[in-house]
Amino acid sequence: MDYRFSGFSYYAKATSLTPEYYQTLLDHYWRRSGTTLYRPDQLHACCVHYTLRLDSTQFKPTRDQRQTINRFNKLLTGDAYTKEAARLQPRTREQAKKRDSEFDLIERVHEAEYDSLQVPPEPAHVFTVTLEHDDFTEEKYIVYENYQRVVHKEQPADITRRGFQRFLCESPVQRKTITTADGKEQRLGSFHQCYRLDGKLVAIGVLDLLPHCVSAVYFLYHESIHKYAPGKLGAIREIALAREGGYRYWYPGFYIHTCPKMRYKMDYTPQYILDPETLAWDLMDKRVTDLLDKQQYLSLSKEKPDSPGDNGSEEAAEKTTAGNALAKEDPMDESDDDDNDTFLFNTGMPGVMSLDEIRSLDQMDHLKLRIDGSGMLFETGDLVAWQRQDVGASGCLKAGIAELVAALGPELLEDLVVDFWNPHL
C-alpha cells in the first residue's frame, strides 16, 4: 500500500464494489475514475469539486430542451414518415390536444426509436439506444478516439486503446438484476448506453446504475452528430432513465462552480448539492449559487440554519476494495509527488474522521484483510505489528489504514476488505 496526500484528493484502488456500497460512497463525496476511487479535499483544492444530484421525478425540461428533443425526433422520422403515419394511424382529437399541451418526457425520448415506431412506413433514419455491458470493443474505441481528438483536442499519440479501456471499460461496480418492490426488474452496475444511427455507433453514455441513482461517468460522441446537441440529448435521456427505471436521482458528476465548461449542469433542475461536512443535501437554488460566486468553499451547514434540503442518505452494503491511499489533483495521474506528501489527519480535509474518533473506534482492530490468494480473510488485529503501531504515526501501516477509514467513515467499514494481494492493483 502507498499513502500520499497532496491537498487535492484522497484516493483508493477498488477491486469489487456492490452497487449498494458504491451508492453510499457517492453520498460520502467519493467518485470513481475507472477502478480509482477518489474523494476531493474541497477546503484546499484550487478548483473545488461538489457532488450534485437531480430529482428526476421533479424535472421539467426547459423550452430549449424540449425543442432539442423534438427537432432530433423530427430529423429521425422525416417528413415523409410523419405524413404517411398520420394518414395510416391518425391521432384522435384528444390525443392530438394532449400532445400539444403536455410534454411527456419518457414518451418523447423514446418516440423516434425504431422499436417505438409503427412501420410501415419506414422512417428517414433507424435510431436505436441499447444498454450494454461496459466491455471494450473496437466500435466503441472509434467513437472515443474521434471524441478525444476532435472535441477535447488531444494529440493522436495520447489517445490509446489501453487508456480507453482503463478509463471507461474497467469498473469495480458489480452488475446484477434485482426485482423492485413494485415487481419490476432493475439493472444495477456499470453499463454503456449505446446510441446507433443507421447502424453506426455515434454516442456512448458511460453509466453506473445504482439503487438510488443513474450516475453519469462520461458521455462521448462522434463529430458527425455534433450539430444535434448530443450532450444535451444524452443528459435528458439519462434523466429519463432515472425516472423510468426507478432510480430517481441523476448524478451528473462533480461540479466546479468556477469552471465555465461545467455551467451547463445548472441547466437541469432541481438539483441538490452535498454538504462536504455534514453530507446533507441542500437545494441548489439562487441563494447557493450566489454564495458560490462569493466564496470558493461552501458548507451550507455553516450558513443559515434554516437552509432548504432534502436530507436523504441511503445506507449500503457489501464491498471489497484495496486501500491504496494516494491523493492528487488528477486521479488518473500516476506520477510521484513525494514533495507534497501530507498526513491526512493534518490536512483539515472536511468530512473525514479525526484521530480521536479513529482511536475510539472499536472496528479498527477487526477490519478485514486479504493478504494472499487462499480466499481466507484476516483481521487487522491479527497483524504482528498492529498493537505496536499508532494510528497517529504517519508512514506506518496502521496509520495508512486509519487514513482510509477516516476518509470512508464508520458507515462503510462493516463490509470493507483491504486487499494487499490482488495482482491487478
TrEMBL record:
EC number(s) from the headed UniProt entry: 2.3.2.8
Domain of life: Eukaryota
Pfam families named among the record's database cross-references: ATE_C, ATE_N
Molecular function in Gene Ontology: arginyl-tRNA--protein transferase activity
Acyltransferase as UniProt keyword: yes
GO cellular component: cytoplasm
Enzyme class, UniProt record, top EC level: transferase
Positions of the N-end aminoacyl transferase N-terminal domain: 13-67
Disordered: annotated segments: 299-341
Keyword terms of this UniProt record: Acyltransferase, Transferase
Compositional bias annotation for Acidic residues: 331-341
Ranges where the N-end rule aminoacyl transferase C-terminal domain occurs: 139-275
Family as reported in the entry's similarity comment: Belongs to the R-transferase family.
Name of the protein this chain belongs to: arginyltransferase
Native species: Colletotrichum tofieldiae
